[in-house]
Amino acid sequence: MSRKLQAIRGMNDILPGQSSVWQYLEQTVSDVVSSYGYQQIRFPIVEHTELFKRGVGETTDIVEKEMYTFDDRNGESLTLRPEGTASCVRAADQAGLLFNQTQRLWYAGPMFRYERPQKGRYRQFHQIGVESFGMGSADIDAELIILSARLWKKLGLLEHVELQLNTIGVAAARESFKGALVDYLTEFKDQLDEDSQRRLSTNPLRILDSKDAKTQAVLENAPNLEDFIDEESQAHFERLQAILKANDVPYVINRSLVRGLDYYGRTVFEWVTTHLGAQATVCAGGRYDGLVEQLGGKPTPAVGFAMGIERLVLLLETLDLIPEAAKDSTEVFVVSLGDAAELQSFVVAEQLRDAQQGWTVLRHCGGGNFKKQIKKADNSGARFTLIIGEDEVVKGVCQIKDMQTGEQETCELGNVVSYLSEKLNG
Ligand code: ATP
Ligand code: MG
Q1: 296 and 336 fall within a common domain
Q2: Would residue 4 count as lying in a domain?
Q3: Ligand 2 mean position to 62 CA, how many Å?
Q4: Which ligand is nearest to the CA of 83?
Q5: Locate the Aminoacyl-transfer RNA synthetases class-II family profile domain: which residues (predicted)?
Q6: Å from CA of 82 to ligand 2 middle
Q7: Which of 106, 135, 167, 220 is the most buried (most CB within 10 A)?
Q8: Same-domain check for residues 245 and 343
Q9: Is 18 in contact with 140 (CB distance < 8 Å)?
Q10: What is the Å distance from ligand 1's center to 308 Cα?
Q11: Which domain-ending residue is among 279, 294, 318?
Q12: Is residue 222 situated within a structural domain?
């Protein structure tokens, strides 16, 4: 026997039983975003490496050490997308959807990052992203956050997540802050953790994110980003907060929230939970007014966010928030004995599927005696079993067994649909 092959480390199969939870989540997101006028966009999983280098930023964790990059057969460098925003901008701009117009777009699908696999952190993971283009004022930032709050509410998660909010100002404000921060931190360089020492010259803002206690201690007396924020960004931030307050969306301001990616400016936010250990962020986003231009388009304001599906599924499971209706279920199991009854079983099963779109009707395949078949029906968890034998065919009837009570009744074949509709839909 040859050796069995395994999936790649950090890349998971989503098995039957789990997939219904994914479908429930994806359907709920799709319903919520379309109620705000967001339209789905789909783009390839592979792009030119250059797109992410320029879009995400050379000094980010993603580009520095997390990308799946390989040479195509003609020597071109390609990369499995590590996130969706850069691709979304590339696709929308290429199609001429960005210049002089507004767009509300969303996408869903797998992303790839070479990270250390652990609970809530994988090498292939899935995101749903929501992006808006052409709108520079704080009302669209607020709309996106209110949309996400509606989603958490619909999923029963609102009380289990916290909105953290910050403004990181315009590029010039961040540049002068960076200067001040680097001046200050250089004095204490030997007290910083290794990553932070490296970031001092590559991406100093990320040092604020450091989990290292010694680094955090040094940061206590560091200059505050808050003091460098330009007036317009401050006004933008205040308007955003006013709209959130008017809509009863609670938030906390987290001054050290800077986000890992280069393209953010002004608003940044994260929805975090205390239920998933270190992988606490289930949704993250912000404003990225410079990105479209950075990727070769016309200057276009933009704001968006992405949520991690695996973490949301974990959270729904941990909190036992998956509704019964979202789980796979079998309404009717059909069994038959003999050739004529088998043909009749197809007819009835098709009639039931015609009449009730939401039902799962399972026909037993492959024959066998009634005892064996009814055991299968039992194992399927079906609510009702429909039994057709040779006698029943002759009489034009079937037996319908309620699998919860064990009661069995005879029903005319012409009445099966109305009989079961009555029982199952009340
Ligand atoms: P983290 O700080 O957890 O690494 P990030 O800042 O790298 O997150 P983003 O690039 O903003 O994450 O992606 C948005 C969301 O996608 C995250 O909040 C998270 O829910 C999810 N996500 C990111 N990386 C992974 C991963 N490797 N596995 C599973 N989910 C992920
Ligand atoms: Mg990360």
Answers
A1: no
A2: no
A3: 7
A4: 1
A5: 1-316
A6: 10
A7: 167
A8: no
A9: no
A10: 6
A11: 318
A12: no
Are residues 43 and 117 part of one domain?
A: yes
Whether residue 284 contacts residue 271, with contact meaning beta carbons closer than 8 Å, is answered with yes
> Beta strand 39-40 with 103-112: parallel, antiparallel or unpaired?
parallel
Mutate to test the pocket of ligand 1, among 279, 291, 303, 315 (most ligand atoms within 8 A of CB): 279
- Residue pair 373/358 in contact (Cβ under 8 Å)? The answer is no
DSSP 8-state code for residue 64: I
Domain of 31, CATH number, reads 3.30.930.10
Tell me which ligand sits closest to the C-alpha of residue 125.
1
* DSSP code, position 44: -
pLDDT (tens, 9 = 90+) of the chain, 426 residues, equals 789 999 999 999 999 989 999 999 999 999 999 999 999 999 999 999 999 999 998 888 899 899 999 999 999 999 999 999 999 999 999 999 999 999 999 999 999 999 999 999 999 999 999 999 999 999 999 999 999 999 999 999 999 999 999 999 998 999 999 999 999 999 999 999 998 999 898 889 889 888 899 999 999 999 999 999 999 999 999 999 999 999 999 999 998 898 867 788 999 999 999 999 999 999 999 999 999 999 999 999 999 999 999 999 999 999 999 998 898 899 999 999 999 999 999 999 999 999 988 899 999 999 899 999 999 999 999 999 999 999 999 999 999 999 999 999 999 999 999 999 999 887
Q: Which ligand gives the minimal distance to the CA of 56?
A: 1
Residues 30 and 83 in one domain: yes
Q: In angstroms, what is the span from residue 127 Cα to ligand 1's centroid? A: 9
Give the mutation target among 106, 123, 125, 315 for probing the ligand 1 site: most ligand atoms within 8 A of CB: 125
Alpha carbon 298 to its chain centroid, in Å, reads 29
**Distance between CA atoms of residues 312 and 12, nearest Å:** 15
Q: Is residue 69 part of a domain?
A: yes
- Verify whether ligand 1 is closer than 6 Å to residue 85 (CB atom): no
Tell me which residue range forms the domain holding 413: 330-425
pLDDT, residue 259, reads: 81
- 263 pocket-lining for ligand 1 (C-beta < 6 Å): no
Q: Say yes or no: 57 and 102 in one domain.
A: yes
Q: Is 272 in the same domain as 395?
A: no
Beta-ladder partners of 319: none
Rounded distance between C-alpha atoms, residue 365 and residue 368, angstroms: 9
Q: What's the number of domains the chain is made of?
A: 2
The angle subtended at Cα 210 by Cα 171 and Cα 252, nearest 5°, is 70
**Secondary structure of 353-415 in HEC code, one letter for each residue:** HHHCCCCCEEECCCCCCHHHHHHHHHHHCCCEEEEECHHHHHHCEEEEEECCCCCEEEEEHHH
- Is 106 part of a structural domain of the chain? yes
Cβ of 392 closer than 6 Å to ligand 1, yes or no, is: no
Mutate-to-test residue for ligand 1 from 281, 287, 311, highest number of ligand atoms within 8 A of CB:
281
Q: Which of 263, 298, 318 is the last residue of a domain?
A: 318
Ligand nearest to the CA of 283: 1
90-132, pLDDT tens digit by residue? Answer: 999 999 999 999 999 999 999 999 999 999 999 999 999 999 9
